[in-house]
Design a protein that fits this description.
Shape: globular
Length: about 110
């Protein structure tokens, strides 16, 4: 399969998960439950800062454990939030962390 087809299938899968989680999270307040994206970023994902700023820096084991504990819809919300840009992180690099964790620690 071509890379483009794989990418499109990945986008469809992520969209389906996000849509389903929105239905589940309506009573919880948002994609990250009762927490804001800024709080998730500064408390839960704080160990990922170096890896989120530089693609060549491998994510730490603690970063990968933290990423694994955060739901996909919450990660998507954090990576698309203004909070990420406010702390000087490039969303294009940050969004690669789950993939990089998978290839480094699993």
């Amino acid at each position: 399969m071509s890379k483009f087809v794989c990418f499109v299938l990945l986008l469809i899968a992520v969209s389906a998960v996000v849509a389903e989680s929105r239905l589940e999270n309506d009573d919880k307040g948002g994609p990250c439950g009762k927490f804001s994206t800024l709080r998730i970023l500064t408390h839960k994902l704080r160990h990922c800062e170096k890896a989120a700023r530089n693609y060549n820096v491998p994510p730490s084991a603690q970063c990968c454990r933290d990423v694994k504990d955060v739901s996909i819809p919450c990660l998507h919300a954090v990576f698309c939030s203004d909070a990420l840009k406010q702390v000087g992180v490039d969303p294009k690099i940050a969004i690669t962390i789950p993939w990089r964790c998978h290839h480094v620690h699993y």
